[in-house]
Please model this.
Amino acid sequence: MAVGLAGYVLLPWYGLRDNFLTFGWLLDGYPFDNAPALFLVLQGQKPWLAPIGLLLAFPLLLWRREKSDPVFAGLLIATGAMGLGYFLLQGFGIGLRGWNWQWLAGLFGELEDRQFGMGWGTLLVGGAFLFLLTTGLAARGAVGGDEFVVGSIGFVITVVGLFIFMPIMQMMGSALVTQEGEYSVGTFLSKLFSQRLWGLGCVTGGPRCGVAWNSLLLAIVVGVLTTVLGLVFALVVTRTGFRYGKLLRALTVLPIITPPFVIGLAIILLFGLSGIVTQGAAAVLGIQPTRWVYGFPGLLIAQTLAFTPIAFLVMIGVVEGVSPSMEEAAQTLRANRWQTFVTVSLPLMRPGLANAFLLGFIESMADFGNPLVLGGNFDVLSTEIFFAIVGARYDQAQAAILGLVLLCFTLGAFYAQRVWLGSKSYTTVSGKGDAGVHPHLPNNFRNFVYAIAGAWTLFTLLIYVTIFYGSFVKLWGVDFSLTLDHYLKAFSVGWTEFGFHWRGSAWSSFWTTMKIALISAPLTAAIGLLTAYLLVRQNFAGKDGFEFGTMLSFAIPGTVIGVSYVIAFNVPPIELTGTGIILVLSFIFRNMPVGVRAGVASMSQIDRSLDESSLTLGASSFQTFRRVVLPLLKPAIIAALVYSFVRAMTAISAVIFLVSAQYDLSTSYIVGRVENNEYGIAIAYSAVLIGVMLAVIGLMQLAVGSRNIGRRTQDDPQATGWRSNVSLPDSGRAAPAMTGGG
Amino acid sequence: MMVEIKSNAASVEFRGVTKIYGKSKVPAVNDISLLIETGKLVTLLGPSGCGKTTTLRMIAGLEFATQGKILIGDRDVTRLPATERDVSMVFQSYALFPHMTVRENVEYGLKFSGFTRKETTDKARAGLELVGLVDYGDRLPSQLSGGQQQRVAVARALVLEPQVLLFDEPLSNLDAKLRRHVREEIREIQQKLGLTVVYVTHDQEEALAVSDRIVVMNNAIIAQEGTPRELYDQPANAFVADFIGEANIFDCEVESVDNGRAKVRLGPLRLDLPAGSHKTGPAKIAARPRRILVRDAQSAGTMPGRLLKVTYVGSHLEFMIDTELGPVFAVSPEVDTPFAAGQAVGVALPERGPVLISA
Model:
């Protein structure tokens, strides 16, 4: 509450472009030019802010009252709800050109003024109202009267609503608006069912198919391929006695930390018109170099390479998770190894297969970099959206409609997955010890699996060698002499009279990316873990909806997030376009599901009685969260940090819409270079990014430290009769599988 | 020893408490009223799903009553969350924090109770001393045996000197020998410090051994409450009779009640038993296997039966006898008398032992 008052009295009500994160406003005409709300009211400039101050003062009446007093709860709820309601009303009610709604104009007369974006003061006041409301609800006894839990639920619901659902809704709304700013269902429908989207030209012999069909076809094929490959790798690591499993795992991490379109670049270097394979084939076999790789085949190769590791990470958890005793039971019932695999192991892996497919599908749908680099004439939805919103055609409605189509596809896949899995239980790991050993695969099948995995591995290595080598080559395909030019151009550093000078062209975007990734990673991890804690550990009304909402957001492709953010946050009350904050926000909410999944996975392995015993020992739920849950969650924290950092570094689909001249990101910079055919710099930059990410991941691992619970190893002589309440996930392995930039 | 663990024991009272989980229609605990006196060890006993753990968790504040009132001492704690109640609990899984040492585990609760650093250390030491684990303070829980972990959990709960100490099936993860030992230790500490302890178990032997009073629960209500001896010797109903120890239960007819004694007809037998609250009419009789006498066939005051099965189990013989009342289970310490299956015998009920229970 005090915070709310401070926000009202001290901090500028309206946001100041560009310096949201600095304190320059303190010197800059404060308190008159950048006035806090109280000043604005006293000066008679913005009279509609006055009631907010009154409402904020209300809780002072409760001074010295008991918490169990019903008046306490009632008043807090009333204040909070009214405050929030009025707050939103004034926020949305006053638009760029005065009143947004006619009836308000009738009520208060015409307004001379306009609304500005929100500033710190607004943020604090809104937060204060929210927490007044939740404290009131807690005092009424919601969720066991726990202020921390109720407050957290309120907070998560608000931010998810504000930064995921509101933008999507706004996008839907703007899909109905025509170029002239009118609402028109007819235009909407004609755009929605246009030939360009849904045309079936390629089937009937025409030149091309609709964009939507292209996307769908590509996503399905990529989904199936990555799932199969992921399964193959998981089998190699767990079921064949393959000795270099660790190596394989390390190798599969590489594509995860690679910006996805880099693979597209490498494909061009290999198979493009001047690629070495193409040139080689032309020289040796006399095959005419063509542009075959641009379009569906190239996209398929690039995306399969890029997303297979994700499928692998999903599948390995599931393949290891199938209880060995199930398989042993099958074998004692006279099934041979092949029959066991087909009848028991494979069906039990169904959730994993579904998940891997869904991830591949969504990632492919959302992938923006590869289609841009490799697409040729094969247009997909994500690039189509980009061109609708960037460039001459600036057509927000068109972009919104395309975004909707994309969203429908991914949500459809999400829904289909749920239906397919149904409500059957696939859990085979119980709390009891399971001493069995996974059976090995039948020999023929094993060799087959080895062959595929081997081929894939070689190909991946080839790709990376190409990238590395390509960054040192003068002009790929023309002049293969080695040079450091690209690095120098992008990353040269020099001394000037002002001291150190980052002279290279890439430094600006590089530092921005680092800064934003480093800011958003801990925030993402924090909000994700908090949500996971609420989902796993607390029971409250509407929890199912809450869970569905947070999980749904991971079926929303980055492209859609990007478009909806542009549409929603271009105008007051939340005016963020062109700032660094919008980038941070988009990363947080784009990557939040990763944190949630990591948290949920490891939190469900921590016995609930640990929390309860902490509570009965007198710790509050916040203290319990901090001292018991968090320390035990270290592996999940690392995973969430690493993933959100990596994704922030490599993401392209959402941010391509949100970057500005001041806040350019590495990925969009690289894509820009590619469009200008400056492959050398693009590749050199990518190589640097990969190196930096490896370094940062290592540092994060060190910083968070490991969890010491003294788990004994097998050969410990006293190893009988111990038990622990925590079943450890293999912390050496990056936990959940949600990666790739898209 | 500088610091001693004291007891701030208080009573616990339930007034018409009902708990209904979520949207379920069936109450987990149905209108229970109960008084647990200060300094007593009271066991909640019952089969799984009878509501005993829910009752315990409502005392702890981990669940909230849907209806009714809960008082600890004289304070109404019905709506108070666990953190704010002066109650600590030993969990079935012990719930030791795996990332903290034994000492840190024991000090954990003290840190939130406003003790100084020194008091915290001293109290934790005293607590560990009480359970005989003073030298294990620097170990991690996973480096202790099950029994030791159990004792750490007890120490962690004890050092807070709670008004009520709760045990949720504390022995179920220990092997049989250790179980007996630990339960004696718990009882010893409880009596030494005069703690109010509420103890949940489904093991009737354990309950009989440790408790001052036992509350038998079944189907979300209290089936009977009393001292161990009362429950064993005078079960109020068939459920209690069968759940605590073994019992043969027969239909019978109360023919007349006079001066607190009832004349009872049980098949061919006539018995004279304490009437309790029973009136004339149909009733049931519960008889412990040990209280059933196996005599020669045709002896006076017996009903005829035929041995279906005779099992020699070392310390005694077990019989399954076919009678006109149905199969009867009996136990005899006389292992030297030769019996064989198929043999005809006479079955008698002594005056002391069988009890009338409600039909």
